[in-house]
Design goal:
This protein has 478 residues and is mainly beta. It has two domains: 17-150 and 168-323, YVTN repeat-like/Quinoprotein amine dehydrogenase (Methylamine Dehydrogenase, Chain H, 7 Propeller), CATH 2.130.10.10; 376-477, DNA polymerase, domain 1, CATH 1.10.150. Helices cover 12% and strands 36% of the residues. It contains seven helices and 24 strands. The strands form six sheets. Strands 5, 6, 7, 8 and 9 form a five-stranded antiparallel β-sheet that branches. A hairpin with a 4-residue loop joins β15 (242-247) and β16 (252-258). The longest helix has 15 residues, at 463-477. It is globular, with a radius of gyration of 26 Å. InterPro entries: RSE1/DDB1/CFT1 (IPR050358), RSE1/DDB1/CPSF1_C (IPR004871), WD40/YVTN_repeat-like_dom_sf (IPR015943). This is RSE1/DDB1/CPSF1 C-terminal domain-containing protein.
């Protein structure tokens, strides 16, 4: 989206199919889970990759016929370990009814150990990265552009310069994956999630567990509590004490973990059936979830206290949007709502406080979709503009499709629709005369815009106000 910035990109051929990639800040290495390897001894492994050269420094091979499904970095004391979930079965994981098949999986804990070469060629083990933890991460400013440290002109004046950061990593130090713990579970381990800095969540079939490391020992894993759903669990995510569980039929379920009693309690459930693709918790009360039918929705808790709630309490759908593409990854981002002229009117602190949380979704087809929050007044204004753009001959869909019907597919009746930025951005491409013609266009009925809007179809819409609002959003995103 930023066209005037340079982004250094490198392409590495690692072999197989990379299924998941993590960045280990202590070693400054990429941890890659690979499947479909052409190897006689294994078809899936976990490898450490140097992000500067693309070389595979070490690898942990899974058993023959075993497939990696999930992995996360989990903190144990002052260090991090890699928790891996696998499948030991070759058949399908889910029945046609949505229930979990009778399969087996493995939970693996790998320690990421540092081995440093001495001058005489011997190897010494280190429990921590030492000085490498103080080095600059090559991904410290990966959003927008890369720093000059990654450019070819700033790496090294000589290939033999050992003081250059990031050059010949494998000749000065080595990182190794060591098996610390392994156990077989009754189900494929499809989801793993850190929880409260001292636990982690892991699923197997239609069950998920709150696990921890007694005495910060990575060679021991203890299950403190178990929760069960009706259908196969696809993902786990957490925000502070709130746990969100997504399965393949009942959608998103909210849980709380009671440490004293070591019990999991279901608090809220999804009002709609959905095959969850991904989910992120914006806070303890709000979840953004995407499904395998191409829709995304924002769900939140009611104001009732958890002590008086029951598992029958439904989450409230705040808004929804049908993209037509499956959002396979959803993340939180930040959005500063200002123009360059605003810098002269306020200080940096004011602009920092004006930043808002946004939702960034990447789709299966390679699209990146950004959702930003707006006020209710701005929503009502742009909703009326979108209703006119959707039917005006200058901006209506070329094939004559019903824009409102398409964006509300798979969404419950009465749930507010998220506004379509692509449709609204057309307004800035029109001339002043065309903009006035669109805003003065008479709508056929009040049903074209939702009944709760405070702007009736006949009320005049100020052109300048619409242009200023859209320009602020357009400038911040571009």
């Amino acid at each position: 989206m930023v066209h005037n910035k340079r982004l250094n990109v490198r392409k590495f051929h690692l072999g197989g199919t990379p299924k998941k990639v993590l960045y280990h800040s202590e070693s400054r290495l990429l941890i890659v889970m690979r499947t479909e390897l052409n190897n006689d001894t294994c078809s899936s492994d976990i490898c450490c990759v140097d992000p500067l050269s693309g070389s595979v420094l070490s690898s942990f091979k899974l058993e023959l016929g075993e497939t990696g499904k999930s992995m996360e970095l989990v903190r144990v004391g002052h260090e991090q370990v890699l928790v891996v979930g696998t499948s030991l079965s070759s058949g399908p994981a889910i029945m046609p009814s949505g229930e979990a098949e009778s399969t087996k999986g493995r939970l693996i804990v790998l320690c990421i150990e540092h081995m440093q070469n001495s001058d005489c060629g011997s190897m010494t083990f280190c429990s921590k990265a030492g000085s490498s933890s103080q080095r600059t991460s090559p991904f410290r400013e990966i959003v927008g552009y890369a720093t000059e440290q990654l450019s070819s002109s700033s790496l090294c004046s000589s290939p033999d310069d050992a003081s250059c950061d990031g050059i010949k990593l494998e000749e000065t130090e080595t990182w190794q994956l060591r098996l610390a713990y392994s156990t077989t579970w009754p189900g494929m381990v499809l989801a793993i999630c850190p929880y409260l800095d001292r636990y982690f969540l892991a699923s197997a079939g239609n069950a998920f567990y709150v696990c921890g490391f007694p005495n910060d020992n990575p060679q021991r894993v203890r299950r403190f509590a178990v929760g069960r759903t009706r259908f196969m669990i696809m993902l786990l995510t957490a925000h502070f004490t709130r746990i969100a569980v997504g399965d393949c039929r009942d959608g998103i379920l909210f849980y709380s973990y009671h440490e004293d009693a070591r019990k999991l309690e279901q608090i809220y459930c999804d009002p709609s059936q959905r095959l969850v693709a991904d989910c992120v918790l914006m806070d303890v009360d709000t979840a953004v979830v995407s499904d395998r039918k191409g829709s995304i929705a924002v769900l939140s808790c009611s104001d009732r206290l958890e002590d008086n709630a029951s598992p029958e309490c439904n989450l409230t759908p705040n808004c929804a949007y049908h993209m037509g593409e499956i959002a396979v990854s959803i993340r939180k981002g930040s959005f500063i709502y200002k123009l360059p002229a605003d810098d002269a009117l306020g200080d940096c602190l004011a602009s920092f406080e004006s930043s808002q949380t946004t939702i960034i979704a990447s789709t299966l087809l390679g699209s990146i979709v950004i959702f930003i929050p707006i006020s209710s007044e701005e929503y009502e204004l742009l909703e009326a503009v979108q209703a006119r753009l959707a039917i005006h001959p200058l901006t209506a869909p070329l094939l004559g499709n019903d824009h409102s019907e398409f964006r509300s597919r798979e969404n419950p009746v009465g749930v507010p629709k998220i506004l379509d930025g692509d449709m609204l951005s057309q307004f800035l491409e029109l001339t002043s005369t065309q903009q006035e013609a669109v805003l003065s266009f008479t709508l056929g009925s009040f049903d074209t815009i939702k009944a709760s809007s405070k702007l009736p179809p006949s009320s005049p819409i100020p052109v300048n106000q619409v242009v200023q609002l859209l320009e602020r959003v357009h400038y911040a995103l571009n």
